[in-house]
Amino acid sequence: MKIAVMSCIHGNYEALNEVLCDIDAQQVEQIFCLGDLVGYGPHPNAVVEMIRSLDIPTVQGCWDEDIVDGLNACECSYPSLIAERRGKAAHVWTDQALHPENREFLAQLPLTLRHDNLCFVHGSPHNQHEYLMPEMDAFAAMERVMATEADVLFCGHTHIPYVRQFDQGQFTVKVNSVTVKSNQKAKQKTITQEFTTSLKKIVNAGSVGEPRHGRPNATYVIYETETQNVTLREVEYDYQKTCAAIIEKGLPEIFAWRLARGWEYAERADDPSHICER
Amino acid sequence: MAWAILSGIVGNLRAYEAVLADVRQSRLAIDEMFILGDVIGPQGDNAALIKRLYQRRPGEPRVAVCQGWWEEQLLILHGLGRTGEPTALIEQYGAAMTKTLWDAVPRELVRQIQSWEFGIFELDCLLAHGSSLGVDDVLTPDTPVVTLVDRLQRMEANYLFCGRSGLTFDYEIAMGQIQSTVQTLDQPATNQSRELPTKHIVGVGNVGGGEQATYTLFYPESGQIQFQQVACQTSPKGFGR
């Protein structure tokens, strides 16, 4: 079975349309979406309606959550006060523009989806706001996959696609445990164990509507369940049309500027490993 | 230099006194005592116990306290927790426990309990009730090794002392290695190799939950870990590794 996984569309209808055309051309049998349908971009309703109409299984992203529950992230979400002002302005604009039925759709999205040995999340299995960066400590990254009890973990949120495959991890542990029972002397035993973890993968689907890999093209991934082969797809689209719409709608112009370059620049988080305490 | 590390007194002043007596009687220079939460409980004399924590007598070490599961539930009840509703408390003990716990701790002590740390980082050791993830995280020798490594790596600690399980154990990760490959749009698959230095997750025991109190002695310079068992009314007995 051939599946397509996309993420972080961010109200960019032009990019979504072109990615869906590319997915059609790849003869994909099933599409999954990892959330962040709205935010930054000028067409949140059109994007949500397209996802709904195609009945694409979708998890809730952090932007979707913020629109449903309100902005309550701590100030660490933004690298500067000016970036915070822009982020909040985009939130207010999206909040006002979004139709009630689309808001309801975002509200009912699950945080996790499962399909056989595949698991789909927005950020990480522990938190929609956690970034699983490709350089993340291998043991910590492996834990994120194993926490799902799946073999392949699909995530987004970073806007940069990658595939990380973990070969067999090996551990030797010595456990010195003590059992204490009422009115009895404690019993100690020491055992040594060897553990081997099985093959696991993290697949980051990149971003359809707000790429940050250094080019303006939309990105998504194709996964073949029989061969476990992953293909990172990069799709050209008319990003200037989206940039013009961002400015026309009165959203912060820097969103158009960075969309045209496919990079984060001033908006980049200081510490991507930080997770907001809400 | 030695540390005494304990958890789960749950308002049991007699058990705490038994541990203190054991510490005083030992010939070791125990200069720090870390209490990893669940100082209070729904029964017991919580007010007297908290007062005793700060009444340091000759021969007793300095005391540092962090919050445990019961402290977190109490703070939630008083509107000072990280969540608004005492969902976990009700799920585990029923709705009546909200009043029992509310009544078990005088209101004037709540701010003091709130001031206790979530966890303490000393040398290369993280000391916390549950883990680096939260006070309700239960780590045991049966927890998957990758999960245990993650809890250590979150704080880049070599030792994690925890008390949530109530068990006494020393889980030593003597060897850990993992190979991975990362492929991006612009780079072909590149190999990464990661090895883990020796790490320990230590369950420090439980003081107040039964007739026998258990706690842990740790010697930071040598890395030696020793578990202590104390009968709450009879003379204490030690057992080392």
Automatic annotation (TrEMBL), chain A:
InterPro entries in the cross-refs: Ap4A_hydrolase, Calcineurin-like_PHP_lpxH, Metallo-depent_PP-like, Pesterase_MJ0912
Any one Gene Ontology cellular component term annotated for this protein: cytoplasm
Positions of the Calcineurin-like phosphoesterase domain: 1-227
Gene3D superfamilies reported for this sequence: 3.60.21.10
Pfam family, one: Metallophos_2
GO terms, molecular function: phosphatase activity
Family: Belongs to the metallophosphoesterase superfamily. YfcE family.
Name assigned to this protein: Metallophosphoesterase family protein
Taxonomic lineage of the native organism: Bacteria, Bacillati, Cyanobacteriota, Cyanophyceae, Leptolyngbyales
Automatic annotation (TrEMBL), chain B:
SUPFAM superfamilies (UniProt xref): Metallo-dependent phosphatases
Source species, domain of life: Bacteria
Name of the molecule in the record: Metallophosphatase
